[in-house]
Amino acid sequence: MSNPTETLKRTPFHGIHKALNAKIVPFAGYEMPVSYPQGLLAEHKAVRERCGLFDVSHMGEFVIRGDRMVDFITHVTSNDVAALADGQVHYSTILHENGTIVDDCLVYKFADRIVMVVNASNREKDFAHIRRHADAFGCQMADISDDIALLALQGPQAEEILRPFVDIDLGAIKYYWHSWGHVSGMHALISRTGYTGEDGFELYFDPRFAEPIWNLLVGTGKVTPCGLGARDTLRLEMGMALYGNDIDDTVTPLEGNLGWLTKLNKGDFVGREALVKQKEQGLKKKLIGFTVDDGRSIARHGYPVYFGGQPSGTVCSGTMSPSLNIPIGTAYLPTAGTKEGSKLEIEIRGKRVSATVTKPPFYKNASHK
């Protein structure tokens, strides 16, 4: 019988994770660290209070070139790429014609190219979906995912820790902007982005620099290696969506609380007609955040949800918030129940437990003022 892990990919940092005795799990086709010996809570706390380092090299990257690249990516995503300046980044969604979400993504604007960063599990699907429209705009697309190593340095001390090693002014890189630079002489794209709600940077570079850059940062003694577990609790505290849990191809960005990145007035784009129609007719459900009233029962992904005594799907994301020490989560409710303070019930171990609609982010901090 074949070992199922044989088909899994490995990031350029795999040897480091093994050497650090990380707990490795299959994730999006990769062997990824879910946590290190210090544990998820210590990793989460490190990012909120100091600085943590995540290997996110499993993410997919596409590069798009052509005179009409802005028109092209504006057409296949919901946000307005024309509003981006060179050196700027924005969050967006890729949609089906019926308005549901193929994936969420980041769009990086350069003078001569656009780079899209997508979820690892959707990489092939996304590329095929977008590629169908490329010829109409005379653009070229390439999947460069395997040529990129990606680290996320996150936490309030991230800038202070990274500053001595780079040849650019990190203070000049605003939130959701990027710049080319060198990390101890190694060429890298440095962007002030992340998935934790804290200040920090994502570093894109050639995989041959993987070990030197990791060792440089962790070698400061101020950076804690962090796995997927802490990445999930950090993003959920901030109310950041996870594809496959909070959003997927059964919901639209309007239902998934992503209307703010859906620019219906920018001109035609894939899915626009369906979204305009949905907006006119009114939403039937919407993604909400909740806290469990008893303060201790954890509502996990997949647990049944009830509103007004009637079934309302299942919990999308749920955990015990390490920062707040209360159970938090997300679910879809009928629009009548989405007002903050509304009540719902969640079936936890066979018993219905009361919960309250709470507007994310659950955790408030001083980042990005």
Describe the model.
- It is a single chain.
- The chain is built from eight helices and 21 strands.
- It starts with 8 loop residues before the first strand and ends in a 12-residue tail after the last strand.
- β11 and β12 (186-191) form a beta hairpin.
- By secondary structure, it is of the alpha+beta class.
- The chain has helices spanning 14-19, 40-49, 69-76, 123-131, 158-162, 210-218, 228-237, 272-281, and strands at 9-10, 23-27, 30-35, 52-55, 60-65, 89-95, 101-109, 114-118, 140-143, 149-154, 178-183, 186-191, 200-205, 224-226, 285-292, 304-307, 310-314, 317-320, 327-334, 343-348, 351-357.
- The strands form four sheets. The protein has a seven-stranded antiparallel beta sheet, with helices on one face. Strands 11-12-13-10-4-14 form a six-stranded mixed beta sheet.
- Among the domains are: 4-57 and 148-237, Gyrase A, domain 2 (2-Layer Sandwich); 60-143, Aminomethyltransferase beta-barrel domains (Alpha-Beta Plaits, 2-Layer Sandwich).
- The protein is 18% helix and 32% strand.
